[in-house]
Input
Amino acid sequence: TLLSAILFTLWHPLNALTVNPGAQALFCDPYFLVIVFCLGIVCSLTYILSRSLWVPIIIHWLTVVVWVIFLGGRNLLLK
Output
């Protein structure tokens, strides 16, 4: 669980530095990475409990959709 959350967290800045440069400011922000780490823990635990990848996929998708559409995440990505 911890390793999965760490890898999930590290993926975000790596993604920003390699394929999504517009997200660098956000994806390298320590506060954002703490939230990502917490989401990684939640997704890992739900995978362990449900034994299905669909549960953490849906949790991640819902988190991103709510953040982008309702909480202004799209504006942060476009900075």
